Amino acid sequence: MTTTQPSTTTAPKKSPFTSPAILIGLAAVLGIVFGLVVGDWAANLEFIGDLFIRLIQMSIVPLVMTSVIVATASMSGKGMGGLAVRTFSWMFGFAVVSALVAVALATLLRPGAGMVFTGELEVDPADLGEPTGWQDTLLNFVSTNVLSAMAEGDMVPIIVFSLLFGLALNQLIARTGNTVLLKVLDQAQQVILGMIKLVMYLAPIGVFCLLAVVAGDVGFAVITSALAYLGTNALGVIIILIMFVVVTTLVTRLNPLLLPQKLAEQTAIAVTTTSSAVTFPTVLRNAVEKVGISQRVANFTLSIGMTMGSCGAVLNYTIVVLFLAQAGGVELSAGQIVLGMALAILLNMGTITVPGGFPVVAMFLATSLGLPIQAIGLLIAVDWFTGVLRTFLNVNGDTFVAMLVANGTGEIDREVYNGTKSVTADEIDMDAHDFEKADQE
């Protein structure tokens, strides 16, 4: 079975002043300064930032579906099994480590101890509905109507459907040899990537407006009331990022000093939009063009990772559990802490990957473990800042996992990684390369 391979070209030299990451970074700084200067007036720019986010979001569902289906359908049965095992093993392993780091830091630093918060919740608990148990959470991984899931952007059921569709298409191809549908879906994926590339020309403008609104409305004074909570999250992100770099370097033997320039663009988008979904197209493109990960591993691993491989979310949710317990003077047993870790990992797979899902998560954790909810309003007030930390670790962690998976199957191009060769992710030849040999290694 053949699959996709990016086209190879000679890498042109570009001015650093045309780098998307630099332009987005400058726009972010200017947006913050502008928002602080004009104050509430910056709210008039909110619709422009929202428009940019929507232009990206409208492509996420079809991009994820085509990426997962093409990646799954393109592989031999043995290759599919090995890729899936590697992907989920690394993701689950890092998620567990993230939860353990969160418990250790929150126990040592006790960010919720002595916390006094008398403000009102910004979200009415009644609006969040009744909390569901873990059985219902797992049940919701499968939708009775995939079109409804697509309309609502419910990513886990979409991925489950896409995996099954890809497996069925894989069997059809093996039985008949007919790859017409696979080629159509592959070309659809490339068209969607082309759409997103056009939208990304507007990224500096969108980022400027998004951060101007945040700075003008909230400013940074709110940080001081939850500095310990934010600091615990930030320290956890640093520790886990170092762990990612060390493990990836030891396993792949690639030069870690080249990583910052490869991750810069997606990092800039991640921290300014606080959305793994919005950043996903950039992560997918960079994985192929800058890191040298094969198209099929990038399609499969990064699509799954966007929803299920969020180490930043696991870290944050586990810290929330201990923060609420400490703020309310509740002593958690070892069993309750383990349950909190398990819920954080489960919620990581089941919550939306766009901004705004945190209040639901916080209420779920509090009600599931019998924790006081009075301090949730404070956590919601500073969630933009924790969202920056979560998304930063989520999107870059997905890239590290994809590197480890690709290394295990021999599908990481070291010349591309080292910058001596360039490839283009949106110019695909279905018959250009055969990965069956890599599947068998």
Question: How would you describe the overall organization of this protein?
Answer:
The protein has a two-stranded antiparallel ribbon. The protein has 441 residues and is mostly helical. α2 packs parallel to α6, α3 (77-109) runs parallel beside α13 (311-327) and α9 packs parallel to α17. The chain has helices at 20-38, 46-73, 77-109, 134-139, 146-152, 155-176, 180-199, 203-217, 227-252, 259-273, 276-289, 295-308, 311-327, 334-350, 358-369, 376-381, 383-408, 414-418, 436-440; strands spanning 2-3, 6-9, 422-428, 433-434.
* Topology order in helix (H) and strand (E) letters: EEHHHHHHHHHHHHHHHHHHEEH
Number of strands: 4
Weakly predicted, low-confidence segments: 7-11, 427-441
β-sheet strand percentage: under 5%
Name the strands of the widest sheet in spatial order.
1-4
Q: How much is the radius of gyration in Å?
A: 22 Å
Look at the structure and give the mean pLDDT.
Answer: 78
> Given the helix and strand composition, which structural class is it?
mainly alpha
In this structure, how is the largest beta sheet organized? Answer: 2 strands, antiparallel
What oligomeric state best describes the polypeptide chains here?
A: single chain
Coarse morphology: globular
DSSP helix fraction: 55-70%
**Separation of termini?**
16 Å
- Counting DSSP H or I runs of 4 or more residues, the number of helices is 19
